[in-house]
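Shipment paperwork, digital attachment
Item: protein structure file
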Amino acid sequence: MSKPILIMGATSGIGQCAVNEALSRNLPVRAFARSAADMEPATGLEPYPGDALDHQDVAGALKGARAVIHALGIRERPAMLWQEETLFSKSTGILLQEMNTAGVSRLLAVTGIGAGRSKSALSFIERAAHKAVFRKPYEDKDRQEEMIIQSDTDWTIVRPVILTNGAKSGKYRVLRKPEEWRMGLISRNDVASYLIDAIEADSDVKSDVVLAN
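Attachment content:
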């Protein structure tokens, strides 16, 4: 049997969509999340309950993995307006360390438009609105992206635009040049499709892309 794709954040959002997309292609998946034990059984699915901030849990999940999708998210709440966020950078620091130990090199990390150098894609009004609501989480995504870029992994930073719950369309665009980056909409299912495509084709290594319809 081929090596599994480790998907972190596998029970919600883009992570859950990526699990479904990989399984639809008959690719084995190791689904990592605190609530992974509650997942419905499926052929090719290996639920892996764990904490992304626990070195031992992450090390165990990486054993024999083909690639890693980091798709952790946070619950939107009023307190995120003022509370410091550290989940993205702390979990990524642990993941990078354990990937090096495990000899797993391929990493796809989902952040979002407005993180890292994609801030330049936002208009003044978009930047002001984004900062008003998402400043704390995106400061941590900035830290996360910098750690990934400085790592020795075969990384891809994936920045979706505004997410929807629409069906997979296959009509999204992969914007690779900063001058092409822009706001827009994209479904979580289309983001998941790109993630699995990029693993299968080994594409966009050492690159940061924006995904939009």
